[in-house]
Task: inverse folding
């Protein structure tokens, strides 16, 4: 009896990978309480959660802000370059609303599925699999496959983030060293390659608690970088009339995919909700998620708008790369941000490694464990560095990652999960849920196809002979 209860209650080890960056050092310890469940009373998953270090409502908002306000916000001026000021503001608000809604429907489905499955909590992948398992009879057998598909998607999504980070580090160092050591003049590919050894070394750290101090330092440093960047963004602003209000439609895909990359926090949502002391406050009005996203959308709009006003079409993939080259404070911000991304790489690296470690657990013995761990970690880092060196255009890499991975994971999959879950339950009056989710799916596919196409074309043009301007990212 005890074995059965334990077997039914434990999630199948599909904890969302993003919890490693949002609550480093405090992995989830959720389990079902040993109390007997009253069969007459509906199962309440919130009452059965036993979290070792539960987050307060305010703390949960801070975790979400930390996850969403990363390198993406520094790419917003480049996004506005591809949309124009007016179109950018409207697009940011609409994209923010859609991203907020898709997370809302995913979490709501997860909470309801926890009641049905009698589980205290579910990860992102588990939620997607359970929606099919407890959905229409004809597709219930797809549950396990869908769960694996989403898990692999998480792997690829956050691996793409690693590639972006390598380009960011390399670009930042090139910007500074080209000024202070002009005789060096190394290519951006060389700078990306030089990150290999430091990244391999820090990624050999297997216990997150040893990275907690680095995470804390990074949080302080990124505030300093934001402060310096905003100072230069708002100093001596040129007239708004000098900038385009609405850019060419052909550039909009780059805007959309960049905003999706910057704003999407789908991977961090379930871990934060699962670790809350009062998870019922995650949704609703104002709610944890709504509050966090209002702040995110506002800040993204402000930085994107005024960053583009300040630098115009010369704005780069990260606005920090536009800071003056002849001022020490500005140059120090670039190096500080490179250090922040270096530490963040180590945390994000746990995303693909979590999946790899689950696969390694199926081995019959633990022989050569250290050799295998070191080898796999080195290989993953090496591949990310190689891809970054091959495609070192920061703006295009961000756009490509947003188009391919984040539009699928953050928009399409939640829409599909919500539709499947409610198919036999309640699709609303006139099937409005189906219509709404179909529209979201179409938007995600448009972002995927158009964004990836424009990004790939740009990358091909770079490879055909524009290597000298890769790091400039001027479009």
Result:
């Amino acid at each position: 009896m005890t074995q059965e209860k334990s077997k039914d209650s434990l999630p199948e080890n599909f904890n969302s990978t993003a919890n490693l960056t949002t609550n480093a050092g405090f992995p989830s310890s959720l389990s079902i309480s040993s109390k007997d469940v009253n069969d007459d009373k509906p199962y309440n998953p919130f009452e059965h959660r036993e979290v070792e270090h539960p987050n307060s409502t305010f703390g949960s908002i801070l975790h979400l802000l930390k996850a969403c306000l990363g390198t993406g916000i520094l790419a917003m001026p480049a996004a506005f370059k591809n949309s124009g000021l007016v179109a950018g503001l409207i697009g940011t608000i609409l994209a923010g609303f859609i991203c907020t809604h898709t997370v809302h429907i995913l979490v709501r489905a997860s909470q309801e599925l926890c009641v049905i499955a009698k589980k205290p909590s579910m990860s992102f992948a588990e939620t997607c699999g359970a929606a099919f398992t407890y959905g229409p009879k004809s597709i219930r057998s797809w549950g396990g496959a869908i769960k694996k598909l989403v898990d692999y998607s998480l792997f690829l999504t956050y691996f793409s983030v690693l590639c972006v980070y390598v380009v960011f580090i390399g670009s930042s160092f090139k910007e500074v060293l080209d000024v202070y050591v002009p005789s060096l003049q190394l290519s951006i590919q060389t700078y990306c390659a030089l990150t290999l050894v430091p990244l391999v070394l820090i990624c050999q750290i297997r216990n997150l608690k040893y990275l907690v101090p680095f995470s804390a330092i990074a949080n302080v440093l990124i505030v300093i970088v934001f402060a310096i960047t905003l100072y230069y963004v708002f100093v001596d602003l040129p007239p708004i009339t000098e900038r385009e209000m609405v850019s060419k439609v052909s550039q909009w895909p780059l805007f959309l995919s960049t905003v999706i990359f910057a704003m999407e926090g789908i991977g961090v949502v379930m871990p934060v909700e699962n670790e809350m002391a009062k998870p019922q406050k995650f949704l609703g009005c104002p709610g944890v998620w709504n509050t966090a996203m209002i702040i995110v959308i506002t800040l993204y709009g402000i930085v994107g708008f005024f960053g583009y006003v300040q630098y115009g079409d010369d704005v780069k993939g990260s606005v920090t790369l536009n800071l003056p080259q002849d001022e020490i404070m500005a140059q120090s911000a670039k190096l500080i941000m490179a250090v922040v991304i270096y530490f963040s790489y180590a945390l994000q690296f746990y995303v693909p490694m979590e999946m790899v470690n689950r696969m390694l657990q199926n081995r019959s013995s633990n022989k050569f464990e250290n050799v295998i761990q070191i080898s796999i970690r080195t290989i993953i880092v090496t591949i990310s560095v190689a891809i970054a060196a091959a495609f070192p255009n920061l703006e295009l890499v961000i756009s490509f990652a947003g188009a391919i991975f984040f539009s699928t994971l953050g928009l399409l999959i939640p829409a599909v999960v919500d539709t499947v879950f409610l198919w036999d339950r309640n699709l609303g009056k006139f099937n409005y849920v189906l219509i709404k989710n179909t529209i979201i799916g179409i938007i995600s596919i448009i972002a995927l196809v158009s964004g990836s196409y424009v990004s790939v074309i740009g990358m091909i043009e770079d490879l055909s002979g524009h290597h000298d301007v890769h790091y400039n990212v001027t479009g």
The chain has 19 helices and no strands. Residues 1-38, 466-475 have pLDDT under 50 and may be disordered. The radius of gyration is 22 Å. The chain has one domain: 50-464.
